[in-house]
Each structure stands twice: as C-alpha cells, then as structure tokens.
From TrEMBL:
Classification via InterPro entries: Cofac_haem-bd_dom
Top-level taxonomic group: Bacteria
Signal sequence region: 1-23
Biological classification of the source: Bacteria, Pseudomonadati, Thermodesulfobacteriota, Desulfuromonadia, Geobacterales
Protein name, UniProt field: ChaN family lipoprotein
Keyword line: Lipoprotein, Signal
Organism whose genome encodes this protein: Geomonas propionica
Length: 285
C-alpha cells in the first residue's frame, strides 16, 4: 500500500478530525431539524434495542456525552451492556476480568494499549462506570492485524486460520450501501493518490470491521435478548449504512438509534436522516 494511502487509512480508522468540544452541546433531531434536550434523546434511546453513539476518538466531550447517555439509561434501571470498538473480540476475557475486579486498572491498561492507540484516560470514566455499576461490556472489534492485512492485500489473502479468528458470521461483501458511501466521501482522495485495488482493499477492511462488530452485537443479543446495547464507535462505523446496515443484512431485527457528533461532513444541514437520527454539536473553545 502506498504510504499516502496507508496514512489516510490510519487517519480514517482513528478519525482524529479537528473538532474541539466542551460542555454545552446542542442536539438536533435530524428528521425535522428540531432541537431536543438530552433527556428527550435518552427517552428515545430507552425505546431502542441498540444505541449507536459515534465519536471522534481524541475528543473528550464526545466521550462525556457517551457516558452521560449510559448514566441516564442506567438510572432508568434498564438491562444494559456497552459495546466498544476500542477492544478486540479476542480480548473479551481480559475485559471481563477487569469488569469483575479480578484484574486491576494498572494491569488492564497494557491490555487496553495493545488494543487501541489512544490514551486510556479518554475512555477511563466509561470503563470505570461500567465496572462499578456491573454493566457488561462487549469487545466489538476484530483483530487489528487482520484489518491491516486486508487493507493492504485484500480479504482474499486471509488464510483459513486467520478467518477463524474472526467472529463467526463475519463477512466481507463490499456490495453494501456503506461502500457507495465511502466512494462518495473518499474516492477522490484515492484517485489522486493511487490506482488499482487499493480503494477496494480499503472498502473490504471497513466492511470487515463493520460486519465483525455487527456480528458481535448480534451474538450478544442472542445470549441476552432483553438487554439494550449502547455501542461506542468511530463515526464511520456507527452511521446507519455501516454497523446497523450489516445487522439488518444478517437478519438481526434490532431497533436502532444513531447519535453522532457534528463534523464537517454533517455540518450546514448536510446530515441526512438516512444516515443519522440525532446530531450533537459543541461550542467552540
């Protein structure tokens, strides 16, 4: 993979967009562009099976919003689980040990660092709230070494052994709405930087992650069918044509609410109800 494309892929997966946020967010219901309160949003979240809350990974205010929604749903005494992109499914046992209190925070931090490149402190309050309130957490992501290999060489190069490391039911069918969404959003960048299969591999890697995370959500719901799942992911995994679409394609019948922070691609009325349910903006610092 050319260096420019590799850097772009890393940037997209981590989504370190220049977006600064502090307390005092404004929430818009995208279907009719009406402002709503956080309490109104949470009332809608209470009725959904799955609540997708997107993030720009290095923005503290986005994580504060995620935690506040989790707090409010917990206060309503709902059966609740939190799914996180930041942990890979093959590290579920370590995550469970931390939540059970049999692994200390100090011992868990190196595990977190192996899974995710961003500072533990950005996510710490969410993990501690889940631990202290006995809320299960789901390690949603697929092994990152497989994502990297697919992004560079394509899904077809995965060996049978490597495919067995994926959550059972994960697919890499790029004939899906999110692929078209990626073409519209990022195709020109790839055209300027490289030719050939690079963009196809990028789409395969994104689909692999979306499908794998959707599969892990679906598997958890089968074990705990009355549990509401709040899934915390990067923006391009949480929009309706990503993980929610993959759930639908697999036959999972989950009512879903999608909440996203405002970024350039969604500003100025560009957010569509086909992609987002609620858009959250934050004041400039």
């Amino acid at each position: 993979m050319p260096k420019t494309i590799a850097l772009f892929f890393v940037a997209l997966c981590t989504l370190t967009l220049p977006f600064s946020a502090v307390a005092g967010q404004a929430i818009t219901r995208v279907s009719d562009r009406q402002p709503v309160s956080l309490q109104q949003l949470c009332a809608k979240a209470e009725a959904a099976d799955l609540v997708m809350i997107g993030e720009v990974h290095d923005q503290t205010a986005h994580h504060d919003l995620q935690l506040e929604v989790i707090r409010q749903l917990k206060a309503r005494k709902l059966p609740l689980a939190v799914g996180v992109e930041v942990m890979q499914s093959d590290n579920q046992k370590e995550l469970d040990a931390f939540l059970a209190g049999t692994m200390s925070e100090a011992d868990f931090q190196p595990v977190f660092a192996r899974n995710w490149s961003y500072d533990w402190r950005l996510y710490r309050d969410i993990f501690l709230f889940a631990r202290d309130n006995k809320i299960p957490m789901i390690a949603l992501n697929v092994p990152k070494e497989l994502v990297i290999k697919v992004s560079r060489q394509g899904y077809a190069t995965l060996t049978a052994e490597e495919r067995r490391k994926l959550p059972e039911g994960t697919t890499c069918d790029v004939n899906n709405p999110h692929t078209e969404f990626l073409k519209q959003s990022f195709g020109e960048i790839f055209k300027r930087s490289a030719r050939g299969r690079v963009f196809d591999y990028f789409c395969e890697a994104q689909t692999l992650r979306n499908s794998g995370m959707a599969t892990n959500i679906s598997l958890y719901r089968k074990k705990a069918p009355k549990t509401k799942i709040v899934a915390l992911t990067g923006i391009w995994h949480g929009v309706k044509n990503a993980i929610p679409e993959q759930l639908s394609r697999s036959g999972a019948k989950l009512s879903t609410l999608v909440v996203m922070p405002e970024i350039a691609e969604f500003s100025g009325g560009k957010a569509s109800p086909e992609v987002i349910d609620y858009l959250v903006s934050f004041p400039s610092p």
